[in-house]
Specification:
With 65 residues, the protein is α/β, with parallel strands linked by helices. The chain contains two helices and three strands.
Length: 65
């Protein structure tokens, strides 16, 4: 049996990641899917958004991003 994999999906211009939900449902249930959603307000620069991703990706699960 292969180890579960983690898939990190970054949203498009709408910032919600809603379009990834059908993909998430179609994937193997052992696949950990993290859909990053941008905040609706506040700073939206690279530094702030990068913190969202790196805090979500802080464990040791193999990751495809």
């Amino acid at each position: 049996m292969t180890a579960p994999i983690r898939l990190v999906l970054l949203p498009g211009m709408d910032g919600t990641g809603d379009l990834f939900e059908p993909l998430q449902e179609a994937l193997d249930p052992r696949t950990r899917v993290d859909i990053v959603r941008y905040p609706g307000s506040g700073p939206q620069g690279y530094d702030e958004l990068c913190l969202l991703y790196t805090s979500d990706a802080a464990d040791d699960t193999p990751c495809v991003d």
